[in-house]
Design brief:
It is built from four helices and three strands. It is of the alpha+beta class. The protein has two domains: 7-68, Arc Repressor Mutant, subunit A; 82-130, no CATH class. The protein has a three-stranded antiparallel β-sheet with strand order 1-3-2. The chain is elongated. The protein starts with 6 loop residues before the first helix and ends in a 5-residue tail after the last helix. The mean pLDDT is 86. Bound molecules: iron/sulfur cluster.
Length: 135
């Protein structure tokens, strides 16, 4: 399915996006098309997955309300090599089940974690620079 759009399709999509659901008849009128050209245009945009149609009744006549299809945000992905953190002290710590913020064993005050962070600061810094920023 081609996502390439003609200028007319772009104009129609803008009108649909800027409205809160425009009637097909209104779109056709705005673009100065006849109803056949309008129907074809709407079908093309629907097939491309850019808009969706909702059947509605206006003054007793069935027509369509056209709505934009919101694109889903892309999921960010990052590859982390697990070997870069395998030597973290928690992996062999006997207190890991009791460790947590505010507990007696707490990562924020753990001397083993402090030492590991100091020894690996450069490596961690390089790893963090490769991560995408959260939006
Ligand atoms: S932070 Fe310290 S106490 Fe907690 S699990 Fe890791 S090594 Fe153990």
């Amino acid at each position: 399915m081609s996502k390439q759009m003609s200028n007319l399709e772009k104009e129609a999509l803008n009108l649909i996006k800027n409205s809160n659901g425009i009637l097909q008849s209104e779109l056709v009128k705005e673009l100065g098309l006849d109803s056949r050209e309008g129907s074809r245009l709407v079908l093309r945009l629907t097939k491309k997955g850019l808009i969706r149609r909702e059947q509605v009744s206006v003054n007793g006549r069935r027509t369509y309300r056209l709505l934009p299809v919101e694109s889903k945000p892309q999921k960010a992905s990052i590859k982390i090599n697990i070997t870069t953190i395998l030597d973290i002290p928690c992996t062999t710590c006997p207190y890991i089940d009791q460790c947590g913020p505010g507990n007696f064993y707490d990562p924020a005050t753990c001397p083993l974690m402090d030492r590991w962070l100091e020894e690996n600061a450069n490596r961690i810094s390089r790893l963090l620079r490769k991560m995408p920023l959260a939006e």
